[in-house]
Amino acid sequence: MAYVKRWALTLLLISLWAPAWSHSLKDLERLLGDKEKYFQSVDKTAPDFALQDADGKAVQLSDLRGKVVVLHFIYAGCPDVCPLHADRIAEIQSMVNQTPMKAQVQFVTITTDPKNDAPDVLRAYGEQHRLDPANWAFLTTRAGQPEDATRKLAEQFGHKFMKQEDGYQVHGIVTHVIDREGRWRANFHGLRFEPTNLVVFINALVNDAAKPHGHEQPSTWDSIKKRLRF
Amino acid sequence: MYDLRTKRWAANLRRRNITVAAASVVTVAVMVALSFAAVPLYRLFCQVTGFAGTTQVAASAPGAVGAKIITVRFDANVAPNLAWQFVAPKPVEVRLGEERLVAFKATNSGNEPLLGTATFNVTPLQIGKYFNKIECFCFTEQLLLPGESKEFPVSFFVDPSISEDDEGKDVTAITLSYTFFNKGRPALEAYLRAHKSAVSAFDAVGAAGR
Question: I need a surface site. Which of A123, A181, B22, B183 has the fewest CB within 10 A?
Fold first, then answer.
């Protein structure tokens, strides 16, 4: 019986230990690639924007360098998926804000209907969906910008908001994640992704997990190059 | 005679044509396979050799350097919807570069299996880059069955180059904080399906112990 117990425990430990050391961003991307079908890894400079919040304060993406940015597009008059998307973002925000990450992550919602989403609509929307204004902003166009400026911006982020004659917009649902240096690092598609997967991805970016853990040592290639120089 | 020779020649030609066709198909298949494998192979080559600036990482601490001692405190938090008790180890004092192993401990105090995953943070925030974890449990799924306790080891060292940083040289205490979140029911069910053997083994051990 003792042999069976030992064998069973060994099997248990082996099966649980395997992923225990994966804590770099690359490891995490691989893990999410396998487990989270709504996760898409991206690595390119995020399109910059110059918009304003409900109080008229100018906000540019470049102003948010040093923070991880979770960005999405919706419009207040959207009757179906946008409220659910806002609720999902609020859920993620409440998880992030339970941790020291609160000061290092900025949530950004951008309206694709600036004509109808007046400042009071933007403010009320945040309250309705329990989005914490401490690190959340609802952005719209500045005076003088074209009415479709934010829809064009959404296109730069890879998806379209197509305005219909009845005022509604046909669109997809994507949550974008931008790292502290302004690089667009991931998309989480739809509403069915697992919230903790987005939270740990944000955590990896907050902690600069792309940077090496441990101290660097000269690579084989560097050693060869060094020897060839002499 | 002539017919026999022609037939042999034709059979030989057919065999050679088949050989050439097979070789061509194999060559094309190998080339297609290599084109798909090129990216991972190149990445592997870079990782092994350090070519193209790929960083290689030491798996161990550089060893204690200098006399400066830093107090490392630990903080353990659990999201409200996760019925776990999560206990942090006591603070430790380490010299720069000295590797240290501590263990957090979590217990499932609920009456159903729960799957958690942890995020981590190092404060002061600007010091995080000098806090190196060689082994940790962040980002990975952790299952605790009802009443089960598990220790989560963390092996770390503080990079000696902290003493050369204007913001870091006066730091005397660092806090490593973990927060466990509930992965939720669908993730738990998927985990249990994928790890049937592990859960059965745990049950077997539990039954043998009872």
Answer: B22
